[in-house]
């Protein structure tokens, strides 16, 4: 809902509240910053004059136009003022780094055919966490770092495949599968570090297989991730700065790293099936609790980059593209239903690399494109 037009004056700057977005983002004067703060407070008091507010009431109000243009600290201040569901934290994040870890929204195309909904004898529980259901499968809680490569489509796919390999083998096979192998060798999947289609990653593993992998620098695996976690990360080793743009997609090498005991073909694991999950809350829940974590694709906005904790729902900021994540469970907090998801932006982002997002209303399209498959064991 737009703030009613009202004139606010500060210093030599006078502006209509309903027109505030027109100049923001292009002028970074102290007066403009003050205006953004004032307009944020006006929006918060005129739209949400009471607390607590329900998530349904919050989502029922359109995002003000000026809020869609906010950036940086102004965006974070606005988020933390107008809603109580998640917290944002300002970090100095270059636009180059932000663009590098987001893929184009063109990859948010779900397959037309979807698997049928699983029939369960038991009811879907109010909460579920795959880490607790299958504690022997440590890969479920592993957070990867895609670095300056738009490879979330492959990283999240390999992550979910690793989980399912362990689950479907009853914990006998705990290998981490290689995202690097998929990024570099699956030509039909898309464009490597410039994005790809998750369903094609699963189909590739059914037809060609995937070798073992791991985090950057990992030994005793065939193909670890090729790019170091760039930039500074809390409590972690500093490998070096982020590049100015995207890393180049690695060339496909059908061989393992030096010192690894197996050859490339002997090291491979294969999928048995690849499919899109029916785009309903219940179907996704049943798939996760029966077969393990799933891969999802969602739209990304600037406010998502600054997510620190809580239950995310798009609040402000422009769309930046799309990303692919892994859904591992669900729950409810203070009446707000949520999915538990693993991101691929390092463990110092969000809730130790994980985040929670509003469940049951297709927030950011997260329920519209869910991909999974079965592994050969």
TrEMBL record:
Tell me where the transmembrane regions lie: 32-50
Residues forming the Peptidase C1A papain C-terminal domain are: 124-374
What is the superkingdom listed in this entry's lineage?
Eukaryota
SUPFAM superfamilies recorded: Cysteine proteinases
- Any one GO molecular function term: cysteine-type peptidase activity
Annotated family:
Belongs to the peptidase C1 family.
What PANTHER family does this protein's entry cite?
Answer: CYSTEINE PROTEASE FAMILY C1-RELATED (PTHR12411)
As for what it does, the entry says: Expression of the protease correlates with blood-feeding and suggests a role for the protease in blood digestion.
Protein name as annotated: Peptidase C1A papain C-terminal domain-containing protein
Species this protein is from: Ancylostoma ceylanicum
Its lineage opens with:
Eukaryota, Metazoa, Ecdysozoa, Nematoda, Chromadorea
């Amino acid at each position: 809902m737009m703030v009613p037009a009202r004139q606010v004056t500060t210093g030599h700057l006078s502006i209509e509240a309903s027109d505030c977005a027109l100049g923001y983002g292009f002028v970074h004067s102290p007066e403009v910053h003050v205006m953004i703060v004032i307009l944020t407070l006006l929006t918060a008091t005129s739209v949400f004059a009471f607390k607590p507010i329900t998530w349904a009431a919050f989502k029922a109000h359109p995002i003000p136009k000026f809020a869609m243009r906010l950036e940086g600290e102004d965006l974070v201040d606005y988020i933390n003022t107008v809603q109580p569901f998640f917290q944002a934290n300002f970090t100095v994040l270059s636009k180059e780094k932000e663009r590098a870890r987001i893929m184009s929204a063109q990859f948010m195309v779900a397959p037309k055919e979807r698997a049928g909904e699983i029939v369960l004898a038991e009811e879907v529980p109010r909460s579920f966490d795959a880490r607790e259901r299958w504690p022997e499968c440590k890969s479920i809680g592993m957070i990867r770092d895609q670095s300056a490569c738009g490879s979330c489509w492959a990283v999240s796919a390999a992550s979910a495949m690793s989980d399912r390999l362990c689950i479907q083998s009853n914990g006998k096979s705990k290998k981490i599968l290689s995202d690097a192998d998929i990024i570099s060798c699956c030509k039909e999947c898309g464009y490597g570090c410039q994005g790809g289609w998750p369903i094609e990653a699963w189909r590739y593993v059914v037809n060609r297989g995937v070798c073992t992998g791991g985090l950057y620098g990992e030994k005793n695996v065939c193909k670890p991730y090729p790019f170091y976690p760039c930039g500074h990360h809390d409590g972690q080793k500093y490998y070096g700065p982020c590049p100015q743009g995207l890393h180049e997609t690695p060339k496909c090498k059908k061989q393992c790293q030096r010192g690894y005991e197996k050859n490339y073909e002997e090291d491979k694991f294969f999928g048995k099936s690849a499919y899109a999950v029916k785009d309903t809350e219940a179907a996704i829940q049943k798939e996760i609790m029966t077969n393990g974590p799933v891969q999802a694709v969602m739209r990304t906005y600037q406010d998502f980059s600054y997510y620190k904790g809580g239950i995310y729902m798009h609040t402000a900021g422009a769309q930046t593209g799309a990303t692919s994540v892994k859904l591992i469970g669900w729950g409810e907090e203070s009446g707000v239903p949520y999915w538990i998801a693993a991101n691929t932006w390092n463990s110092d982002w969000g809730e130790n690399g994980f985040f929670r997002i509003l469940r049951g209303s297709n927030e950011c399209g997260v329920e519209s494109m869910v991909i999974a498959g079965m592994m050969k064991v």
